[in-house]
Design a protein that fits this description.
The chain is mainly beta. The chain is built from 2 helices and 19 strands.
Length: 394
């Protein structure tokens, strides 16, 4: 079974990368810089419910206003971001949504040997029909799911930037809770608490070697009748390298061992290789090629104990002149489910172009094609999304 599909999420990433607008902020007397941004777009999705048959298409109007408040003295900084994300489906008003986010970031350097970062995020998110918990159900549910998530993360790093060795400690709390379809979604609500540490060593050749150790305690509050708990402890030990060896190439890579240990004895634990790497090659000032690859076991949205997921992406971004940037990209995701018989693979092709009309206005066009195969008859689908976006700044 096979089919092709278009990736809205990847389109967003590509557009951000090719962004040419140069937003100017408003400086207040208190030193806070306020920077608003507005994205308005229209796109057509030929399979809004990600179904293998009887596809339904719709034009979609998106309006995403955001604003950033930044206070910085050059070393220490405080930043607040807030925004809305709205979508209007011209052929399916039940799928209209209005999401939002609020984020706070703080970076402090109380001494030459100490750095402290704090991040807090609140997100209100709509899960389109046919994705997440409703994957494979298409329009058999009468409205999209919605959830909120809260993230609080902190990092403390010890060691002067001029020294070879540094030690960092990480803590991260995450919570996800749904607001509708409680009979189903209550069993997918969870929180997690991660603790980790990173020991890094600068070799003196623009290269850092590092060792990462972490434990993520994932807890699901409720367990569906007849099923075992998905709560688990996720342990990882990774060694890696980060380099800026030349002006042409930068990147980082880490590889190691992951162990996902379930509380329930009836679920099979995962133990195996995990990695994450990203490389950027810029042979010319106006051309950039990037490649990333990762592999890890993660929690499923619907079925199984875990998904052994591998993701590989390749992209080419080119600046044709001062106004025009283009990007071509391809990604491949392979998902192997544990606890059920299911394997998926998804290939996404994408292309975009962004033209800077003025310093404060960009216009972009994009096309995404997604081809998802699955051993399940209800999961595979094709999707094509094409659209145009306008970005306005001050």
């Amino acid at each position: 079974m096979k089919k092709s599909l278009l990736a809205t999420a990847l389109a967003g990433t590509i557009f951000n990368y090719a962004h040419a607008v140069e937003p100017a902020g408003f400086n207040t007397e208190s030193g806070i810089v306020i920077t608003p941004l507005l994205n308005v777009g229209v796109k057509n999705d030929n399979n809004i419910f990600s179904q293998p048959a009887n596809e339904e298409s719709s034009a979609i109007l998106t309006v995403d206003p955001t604003v950033n408040f930044l206070l910085s003295d050059g070393i220490n900084s405080y930043s607040v971001d807030a925004g809305l994300k709205s979508a209007t489906y011209f052929s399916s008003s039940d799928d209209n949504y209005l999401d939002g986010f609020l984020a706070f970031d703080m970076h402090l350097e109380p001494s030459s040997q100490s750095r402290f970062d704090l991040n807090a995020d609140l997100n209100w998110v709509t899960e389109p029909r046919g994705t997440g918990i409703t994957e494979g159900l298409g329009d058999s549910v009468d409205e999209p799911l919605s959830y909120s998530e809260q993230i609080l993360a902190a990092t403390y790093e010890f060691g002067a930037l001029s020294t070879n060795g540094k030690l960092a400690f990480d803590a991260r709390y995450y919570n996800k809770g749904y607001s509708n379809f409680e009979a189903v979604t209550q069993y997918r609500e969870y929180d997690s608490f991660l603790l980790g540490t990173t020991l890094s060593y600068n070799t003196g050749a623009a290269t850092d070697l590092f060792l990462e150790l972490s434990k993520d305690a994932i807890r699901y509050e409720k367990v569906e009748a007849g099923r075992a708990s998905l709560s688990s402890d996720d342990y990882r030990a990774l060694i890696g390298v980060k380099w800026e060896a030349t002006a042409l190439t930068t990147g980082s890579a880490k590889i190691g061992y992951q162990n996902k240990d379930f509380e329930s004895d009836s679920r099979a634990n995962f133990s195996g290789l995990s990695w994450n790497a990203g490389i950027t090659w810029q042979p010319l000032t106006y051309t950039l090629i990037d490649f990333s690859t990762s592999r890890a076991a993660r929690d499923p949205s619907v079925e199984g104990s875990y998904i052994k997921e591998s993701v590989h992406t390749l992209g080419w971004t080119h600046g044709w002149n001062q106004q025009l940037n283009t990007r071509l990209g391809v990604s491949y995701t392979k998902e192997d489910y544990s606890g059920v018989v299911r394997k998926d693979d998804t290939t996404t092709y994408s292309a975009s172009a962004t033209y800077a009309l003025f310093r404060w206005v960009d216009v972009g066009v994009f096309a995404d094609f997604i081809d998802k195969n699955s051993t399940r008859d209800t999961i595979y689908f094709d999707k094509t999304v094409v659209g145009v976006n306008f970005t306005f700044a001050m």
